[in-house]
Amino acid sequence: MGSTAGQRGHIHRLVTTAVALLATASLVTACGSGDGGSGGGGDKAATATGVDDGTKLTMWTRAATRPQSEALVEAYNASHQNKIELTVVPTDDYQAKVGAAAGSRDLPDLFASDVVFVPNYTSSGLFADITERVDALPFAEHLAQSHIKAGTFEDKKYVVPHTLDLSVLFYNKELYRKAKLDPDKPPATLRDWDRQARAVDALGGGVDGTFFGGNCGGCGVFTWWPSVWAAGDDVLNKEGTEADLASGTAKKVYDTYRGWVRDGIVAPGAREETGTTWTGVFPKGKVGVMPMPSTTLGLMPKDLDLGVAPIPGPDGGKSTFVGGDAIGISATSESADQAWNFLAWSLGDKAQVDVVAAHKDVVARTDLASNKHSQADPRLVTINELVAHGRTPYALKFGQTFNDPNGPWLTLMRNAVFGDGTSVAKDNEAVTASLAD
Amino acid sequence: MAVPQGQGPGLRGPTAVFVAVFFLVPLLLVGQMSLSDWPLLAGDRGVNAPENYSDIAEGTLFWPAIRFTLLYTVIVTAVLLTLALGLALLVQESRPGAGFFRTVYFLPSALGLASASLLFWGLYSPTTGPLSRVLEKLGLVDDPVSFLGTPTSALLSTVFLIVWKFAGFYMLILLVGLQRIPHEVYEAARTDGASRGQIFRSITLPLLRPSLALCLLLCVTGSLLAFDQFFILTKGGPDNGTVTVVQLIYREAFQRMDLGTAAALSIVVLAALLLLNALQFRGLRRADES
């Protein structure tokens, strides 16, 4: 290699490498945000129903609640002059996408969010203030209050419920019959659940007792916490800055799950299930009883004879995680009145009953809990009634503490269930440290 | 090729603009960001240096991520280059069928890394993937295989994906290098009675050094910047066993929503890579001179 050419090549390659590296770095800069958007004030011309004048609106939602959003948007587009263009973003990438768009002021007119992340967005001023509009709705007081509460920041309202997703037990009645269990007696306590899962598991032949997302912090929050709440305990303090995940009740819950792992009651794949496919196991008909999101009820195979029951605590009680998506108008939207037209319509009787309830989903209004569709399917009544017994936890650092695949809660979960369960107290401290970060 | 006097700056212009826009400006921005309190959703809140830099070392995952990234780089580079050289030697001669095998070995390189990772994620999945079931049917294993279930198996499964994906690419570079070695040198060696082993050690390897050096640089740099494959296959798990340095940058920016610390980490990684590449070049040049 000639020395001059070598030198030049050397520098050239160094620069090439640096440029390649900068691709990563610029990914970060590209997402830097300018001065944060202001909360925005309610439009004075706003009416309770907004404006339907043929405006094109953009809307984002995450894949986890895609069927519900699609159904609503489709029905709205078919009956209105405004047209909504819905973009579905992979669930894991949603935060990043919203963050990047917030920086470059490219947020869509409407965007839904996992309700636990809403406090991040409201406190950063990404949503427009819709307090007046919400309060003007004739049914304002009947809207699912856990979602409204999550979207209230400094006494202003920024979101309305979009899709409610509750954690409930699904159990396979056919397998229950085969295992000589009463298909009309789902578990009323964690102990029952344990006994029934083991009875189904004993059938063998590829049948397993239960399943859970063991490498998925969000799944743990969604399906394990209700067992703690059902006993009357809490897992976080009110401000969301301190965790109480090492309580006696919580340990009883972990112990039960650890027993299932130890004795092979859990379907294969739980240990590495990152949450992408955890709801795909039950519909195959080989699992006895497991917690599932209520939004999947309408997606289950028609020939699967499944029952629904509340998630019980160690010695009884019932609770649920009132999750799902809340939705608001972005602070930078220039079509707030038109966007509100969609939101107001989506919460109205017609959309709630003929679209939401018809798809076997939980309605966003308590006054519609009993409707023509839920009366036809007692499982829906079970779910709708649970809303009152459920909770939506609040923490500003929720995502980085509980959903982050490298966060402290997942470590706690895995040590408690796949390990020997002795590090719960220490891991709980790490969770608190992250919440208070 | 001589450039007429006075035209040099004009010809250099476009490159200079390109470098400024796509390299210098982002670099300066990242530098500024790394010195500022910059939450993802709220934007720039002013200088807070050197807090972002001191935060880095305090992160519990920082040192494990460095250790893991280095381990991954060593394993991938060793396996990949050995295999690529083997493949190149297998298909270097124009025998019937050589073209077919060259194409087959190179084919995975035509796939994007993210697509390939998703493909393997599907294959590895114990709930929906076919791989475990096939192994069970063949009687090779009794229970479903958990390809991504432990940190070690997750690392090995990822290395397998990367080797499958890139072996053909590095084979191609080495193949070009092999074909640049003049036939006369081999003939002379054979006339002198050199054995196959001697020819490989004393002719092929030394004359292939520039190609091997290029492969080494690309492979080491690429592996140190590993992200897509782990992001898709393992998300850094299980038990934080496969967190790479670039994943940490992503996590700071998009999970912890702290662009300042993410930018500081990017600068640290950039400095480390520049240093490492400089060392590699120096080492290779010294070897050339000796």
What's a concise summary of this model?
The complex is a heterodimer of chains A (437) and B (290). Chain A has 437 residues and is α+β, with helices and mostly antiparallel strands.
Fold and architecture overview:
The complex is a heterodimer of chains A (437) and B (290). Chain A has 437 residues and is an alpha+beta fold. Chain A has two domains: 5-165 and 323-389, Periplasmic binding protein-like II (D-Maltodextrin-Binding Protein, domain 2), CATH 3.40.190; 166-322 and 394-436, Periplasmic binding protein-like II (D-Maltodextrin-Binding Protein, domain 2, 3-Layer(aba) Sandwich). Chain A has helices at 3-30, 66-79, 94-103, 118-123, 131-135, 145-150, 173-178, 190-201, 217-230, 248-262, 336-347, 349-356, 372-376, 378-386, 398-403, 408-417, 424-435; strands at residues 56-62, 83-89, 110-114, 152-153, 156-157, 160-172, 289-293, 306-309, 311-313, 316-319, 322-329. Chain A starts with a helix and ends with a helix. Chain B has a single domain, classed as MetI-like (MetI-like fold), CATH 1.10.3720. Chain B has 13 helices and no strands. Chain B has helices at residues 8-34, 51-58, 62-91, 98-106, 113-124, 131-137, 151-180, 183-191, 196-207, 209-224, 228-233, 245-255, 259-289.
